[in-house]
Amino acid sequence: MNFDLSDEQRSLQEAARDALGREDTVAAAREALEDPSSLPDLWETAAAAGWTGLLVSEDHGGVGLGPLDAMLVAAECGRRLAPVPFLGHLPATLLAEGDELQQLAEGEKRGAYLPTMPPSDLDDAWTVDPQSGLRRSPAPAFADGKVTGRVHWVPDAAKADYLIAIAVDGGVPKAVLLETSQPGVKIEPTIAYDSTRPMAHVELDAAEGKVMSASADDITLAWSVAQGLIAAESLGAVEESLERSVQYAMERYTFGRQIGSYQAVKHSLVEILRLMENARSLMYFAGWAGESAPEQFTLAAHTFRVGAGEALDYAARALISVHGGIGATWEHDAPLFFRRAQLSRRLLGGTGAAADRVAGELLAQAGAAPARG
Amino acid sequence: MDLNDTPEQAEYRAKVRTWIDANKAGAPGLDGPTAGKEEEFIAIRRDWQRVLAEGGFAGVTWPAEFGGQGLGPLDQVIVGQELQAAGVPGILDVIGIGMLGPTIIAHGTDDQKQRYLAPMLHADEVWCQLFSEPAAGSDLAGIQTKATVQEDGSWKLSGQKVWTTNAHFASFGLILARTNSDVTKHKGMSMFIVPMDAAGVDIRPLRQITGEAEFNEVFFDDVHIPADAIVGPVDGGWMVALTTLLFERLAIGGGSEGFGYRADRFAKAIADDPVASADADVRHRLGKLATDLLALRYTGYRHLTAIERGGLPGSEAALGKVTAVKAAIEAGDLIADVIGPDALAEGEWSYLISFLPGLKSAGGTEEILRNMVGERVLGLPTEPRLDKGVPFSELRALEREGAKS
C-alpha cells in the first residue's frame, strides 16, 4: 500500500511551480480580459519543461509519464490560472502517431484535440458540445476519406497546427489528424468569460487528414484524460483559493477579532478543505486507475471531474465572500478564479454530463439494463 | 502509487484467509439481533470473539505480553478486510479492544493490565466507554459526574453518562469523572474503571429514531470505587481520555465504509428500476453522491498510507464522517424518492434514513469537527472562550451571567 505521490512526482510539482512562477499569470489574466492579445504564450515554457510530450513515450520524443503526472502539472497551471494549452494538446498526443506525434511531443507543432464524448449506457452516439443549449451535436462524419462537421468550444484550437478530430464512420469513431492550414478547416477563435482559456469553434468541410490507428477505447481514453486534466486545473485553483481565503481570514478583523475565528467563516473555509481533499483523493484514484486499473479509468476520471468541479464552484464563491465586497471588484483577483470556475464547469461536456457518466458506469456495473431512450 | 500488499502483508493476508476458511463454518452471520433475541445474539458473538482471539485475530495490534499479536495497524486492517470479504463478523467488543484496552496498556498499572486485558480480549468481559454526558459532548471537558475521595482513599461516584454503547451487557466501564472543581476544567478530571454491576449503577436503554436502543444512559448514585481503580494520575484524566480519542482516530484510518455506505450498494438499489436508471435527475444525484463515496474510499487509502509509514491521518480525516453522512443522507433520500413510501416501511432503507440524523452528531457534531479542523489544519484562530483560566466551580455562575447579558 502506497497511495501517495512518489518523490519524482513531488519534484515534478515543484519544477512546475518554479517554471510557472516566472510570470505573474494571475495579473495577466486580468489584463487579458480587456486585451486578449496580451495573454502570455506559455508554449515555450511547456516545451522546455517537456510537458508537450508528457504523455508520449521516449521513443516518440516524449518523456513517457502517465496521467497522474500530467494532472499534477495541470494542477500547478490551474493554481496560477496559467494559460498552458494542456486541454487541447495532451489528449491530442494520445491519439497522434508517426512523425506528427514526434513533432507534437517535442513542441515543434501544437495539437488540439476536438473533445468528443463517447457513447454512454443510454446513448450510442459519439457527440460534441453544441454551440448552445442542452441538445448535444453529432460528432463529425467520416466519408470518402474526409471529415465534415462542427465542433464547438475547442480549447487551444486557435494556435494549433494539427487537430485531432473524432470522426464517425458507420458508428465507428476514427481519430483523424488534420492540418489546420488547409481550406477545409475553419477555426473561429473565441473567448467566453475566462480570458485565460482561448477556445475556438471549428468547422470541418471535407477536411483531409490522416486516419490514426487509435481504437474506440483509445478515443474514450483521450476524452477521460481531458476530463482529468480540466479537473486537475480546477483542483489547483481550489488550493490557491483556499490559501488566499485563509490568509485574509487571518488578517481581517471585525469586532476586535480575526474573522477566521468566527464559525460562519471558519466552517466555510473547512468546507473548501473538505471538498479539496475529496477531489485530491479522486485525482489519486484516477492516477492509480490510469496506471494499474485501466478498466476503472473512465469512472475514476469522471468522479474527479465531478468532485473537483464542485470544489471549485464552492471555493471560487467562498473566496469572494470571505473578502466581502472588495472580493467582487474588478481589481481583485478573486473574480478571476470565479471566471475560471464558471467556464470550466461548462466545457468538455460540463460537470453535469460527468456526473451522469459516473452514475451510468455504476449502474452498468450493478447490472442495470435501462431502456435506451 | 499502488494498493498492493508488501510481501509481508501478502503473507499475513494469506494466513488470515486460511484461518477464516478453516473456521468460517462456525461463524455467526452478519445480521444484527432480532427483537427479543438480543441476549442470545450477544452470547453467540462473545463466543465468536473468543474463537477469533484464540486464532490471534483479536487485539492484533496489542503487545504480545498482553495476549495480542504485536502487529501493526495495517495488519489489523487486513484482518478486517478479510473478515468482511468472507462475510464473517469481527469482534464484538470493538470499543474495548480498539480504544479502552490500548488506553489501559498505555496508562494502567501492572495489576490492572494483569486483571483486565485477557478477559477483555476473550470477550469474557465486555467494556463500555463512559465519557459523554447530557451536558458535555462537544465540550467533553465540561463533564459533571463527580468522584469524591473517601478517607480510606477509595472514591464515591455520582452523575450521569449518555450515548453508552454496550453498557447493558458490559462488565466494566472506563469512566471520566471530575475529581477537583477548584481548578480549570481540563485539570480536574480523573479516569476510573467501574464495574457495571456495582451497587448504585443504573443502566437504561436509550431508544433512537430507528426504534432500536443502540445506546444507553447510565446513572451513578454514590457508587463505590476502590482506590486502585484509578487509571493514570489523580486529576490527570484528560490526558488519559486523549489517548482513548487518539486510538479512535487511528480506527478511522481503517476505512469509512464500515457503515456499509458504498457507491455500489446504492447504485444496485437504483439499477433494479429501469425507469429510475434512465432518469436524468436520479442519475445526476446518484453520480454526485457516488463521487463523494468513492472519494472517501480513496481518502481511506491515503490514511492507510500515513499509518503504514508510522504516522496518523491528519486531523482533516475527521471530515470523512461529514462526507459519509452527507452522501448517505442523499442516498437515502434518492432511494426513497425512487421507491416511494414503501422505502419508509421497516427494512434496509428505513433503517438507513432513521439512523443518519443521529450519526451526524455521533463522535463529534459536524460543527465541532469543523472547528477542530479549521483550527488544527488551517491554523485559524479559536473563538474567544469564557472558560479559560476559570476554576470549574465558578463556570456555572459565569455561564448564567453570560446568558443574562
Any overview of this molecule?
The complex is a heterodimer of chains A (373) and B (405). With 373 residues, chain A is of the alpha+beta class. Helix content of chain A is 49%, strand content 16%. In chain A, helix 5 runs antiparallel to helix 7. The longest helix of chain A is centred in the middle third of the chain and has 36 residues. The radius of gyration of chain A is 20 Å and the shape is globular. The model of chain A has no long low-confidence stretch (mean pLDDT 96). In chain B, 47% of the residues lie in helices and 12% in strands. In chain B, the strands form 2 sheets. Chain B has a 4-stranded mixed sheet with strand order 1-4-5-8. Chain B is globular. By secondary structure, chain B is an alpha+beta fold. Chains A and B meet through helix 7, strand 11, helix 8, helix 9 and helix 11 of A and helix 7, helix 8, helix 9, helix 10 and helix 12 of B.
The ordered H/E elements of chain B are HHHHHEEEEEEEEHHHHHHHH
> What is the terminal separation of chain B in angstroms?
57 Å
Mean pLDDT of chain B: 93
Radius of gyration of chain A: 20 Å
Biggest interface, CB < 8 A: A-B, 61 and 58 residues
Runs of chain A with pLDDT <50, length 5+? none
From the alpha-carbon coordinates, what is the Rg of chain B to the nearest angstrom? Answer: 23 Å
Q: What proportion strand of chain A?
A: 15-25%
Strand order of the largest sheet of chain B: 1-4-5-8
Q: What general outline of chain A do the C-alpha atoms trace?
A: globular
Shape of chain B: globular
Task: Name the assembly state.
Answer: heterodimer
Instruction: Summarize the amount of helix of chain B as a percent range.
Output: 40-55%
Percent helix of chain A: 40-55%
SSE topology sketch:
The complex is a heterodimer of chains A (373) and B (405).
Chain A: H1 7-20, H2 25-34, H3 43-48, H4 67-79, H5 86-95, H6 98-106, E1 111-113, E2 127-128, E3 137-138, E4 141-143, E5 146-155, E6 162-169, E7 172-179, E8 185-190, E9 199-211, H7 216-251, E10 253-254, E11 257-258, H8 263-292, H9 297-322, H10 334-344, H11 350-365
Parallel strand pairs in A: 1-6
Antiparallel strand pairs in A: 2-3, 4-5, 5-9, 6-7, 7-9, 8-9, 10-11
Helix pairs in contact in A: 1-4, 4-7, 4-8, 5-7, 7-8, 7-9, 7-10, 8-9, 9-10, 9-11
Chain B: H1 7-23, H2 38-55, H3 73-85, H4 94-107, H5 110-121, E1 127-130, E2 146-149, E3 155-162, E4 172-178, E5 189-195, E6 201-206, E7 215-225, E8 230-231, H6 237-252, H7 263-271, H8 274-277, H9 280-308, H10 319-339, H11 348-359, H12 366-376, H13 392-404
Parallel strand pairs in B: 1-4
Antiparallel strand pairs in B: 2-3, 3-7, 4-5, 5-8, 6-7
